[in-house]
Amino acid sequence: MEIPKKTSEYLSPTYWNERFKTEESYEWLGEYENFAPILRRYLEESSHPMPQTCLVVGNGNSTMGQSLALDSKVMRYGTHTVCITDVSPVVVSKSSEKAGRDGGEVSRTSWAVCDMLCLPYRNKSLDLIVEKGAMDVLEVDGGKDPWHPNPKTLERMHAWLAEAHRVISDQGVLVSISFAQPHFRKLLFDSQGYTWIVETESYTTTLASTENQEAQGGGDGSFWEYFIYFARKGARSPSLAHQRESGVGGRSEADRKGCKEDYEHEILDHEDFLFRIGGQGDDEDEDEDEEN
């Protein structure tokens, strides 16, 4: 399927349903083993018990969710310890059917269609949430550049973070893997209403690190750097206290009842959507936002 002319099209569930009908697999921001050693080390060095319950948000057709469920250094084994979700019913159906045929991880996973802005989980019910590129897609209509974000984009980002913060257990962890650089992303994590301590790591991959990228002309030896944000609930991090935003963070039950049941998702690194914010095809959307 062709790359959309307007980055805002990545927010359309219809786009992803159509794409997943023909695309069998793609690994956003590298494969699981590119960042798994960092995740394992972080959890090992933590003084808290190994996670028993995990939510993978926006898995798409990646193998990350299944790999995580089978990783004994990350997840304590049990029945349906990992719930793998995406906004697209097409990819959820295809992936769950494939997992059933392959066996192996099926006893440790469940699959569900899920809106990351309105999570169907009780407060403090999950030990671990992992997303790779899902939060990034919320920024595809982010404004002229990362220094001048759209108010609607910030609203979506905080709707997601507030939901994650709500359902993570005390001392639980949100793991966010992203294109976004720390000096932009950590300001969001450190906003009022969130009590997590945020640590940042990074890793690099080459464009030829996956079969998909090789097939699409990658492999020129270029490197991509990605960032991992570990947000553990607990005492608030003091590092950016003077820069915290006001009026954002936790959402009321009234706000949650207004959540839409349809939503948007995923991206591909070779499409470098974050670097095209405010680029060709998005001016019309920006003008509409300014008028509104």
UniProtKB/TrEMBL annotation:
Q: What keywords does the record list, in alphabetical order?
A: Methyltransferase, Transferase
Could you tell me one molecular function GO term of this UniProt entry?
A: methyltransferase activity
Q: Which family does it belong to?
A: Belongs to the methyltransferase superfamily.
Q: Which Gene3D superfamilies does the entry mention?
A: Vaccinia Virus protein VP39 (3.40.50.150)
Q: Which BP terms from GO are recorded? A: methylation
Q: What is this protein called?
A: S-adenosyl-L-methionine-dependent methyltransferase
Domain of life of the organism in this record? Eukaryota
Q: Which PANTHER family match?
A: EEF1A LYSINE METHYLTRANSFERASE 4, SAM-DEPENDENT METHYLTRANSFERASE SUPERFAMILY PROTEIN
Q: Does the keyword Cytoplasm apply?
A: no
Which species?
Answer: Chloropicon primus
User: Do you know which InterPro entries this protein is assigned to?
Assistant: Lys/N-term_MeTrsfase_sf, SAM-dependent_MTases_sf
